[in-house]
Amino acid sequence: DTAVSQTPKYLVTQMGNDKSIKCEQNLGHDTMYWYKQDSKKFLKIMFSYNNKELIINETVPNRFSPKSPDKAHLNLHINSLELGDSAVYFCASSHTGTGSTDTQYFGPGTRLTVL
Amino acid sequence: GDSVTQMEGPVTLSEEAFLTINCTYTATGYPSLFWYVQYPGEGLQLLLKATKADDKGSNKGFEATYRKETTSFHLEKGSVQVSDSAVYFCALSDRGTGGFKTIFGAGTRLFVKA
Fold first, then answer.
1. CB–CB of B44 and A102 under 8 A?
2. Residue range A3-39, pLDDT digits in tens
3. Shortest CA gap B34–chain A (Å)
4. What is the rounded CA–CA span in Å between residue B72 and residue A27?
5. B78, CA 20 to 30 Å: which among A69, A98, B30, B47?
6. Which secondary structure element, helix H or strand E, spans residue A95, and what is its range?
7. Chain B contacts of A42, Cβ < 8 Å?
């Protein structure tokens, strides 16, 4: 059983298009994240949601909009895609309640290529 | 603010060699420390963790000890295999007033040759 799943795995699109990436976790975690990983493997956090509420919103263009319909889902919508948005995007989840250590569980990633 | 610094890669070793990947951190609180591993084409997965000073995390022959006095959490393995080739990330997680904040190092790529 997949713990954190993302769709699609690969996404190739033209500049200026709008696209969405979906994420679901079946671990019962209360917090979900989106990360961007560049070609040098550097991992940058973009957003964090706790119980459907935005907790962390790092400096990302407002073309990126996360949406959390419920605790098990965190989708990422990107408007007006640019060449620099090409990267691998990872969804992750964790339990952050009392006694937890925020061990994060990652999805398999979505490789976005903007042409 | 909190930060994690790990040695730059790539690190290239022959099979059965000893591995050390250095990681140091700065933190205002008492963070938990982690090593995550990313195999080619996959997401990160937890390798080991330690939650307080002097704790040793271990898994799959890898070990790391939480050293508060040197603010370090170096990853070691006595005998690497080709299958250990991956990118390794050191991370810390610190609970503040706004909840947890997890910070990842830049990653160290390991190549193991047969």
1. no
2. 999 999 999 999 999 999 999 999 999 999 999 999 9
3. 8
4. 31
5. B30
6. none
7. 106-107
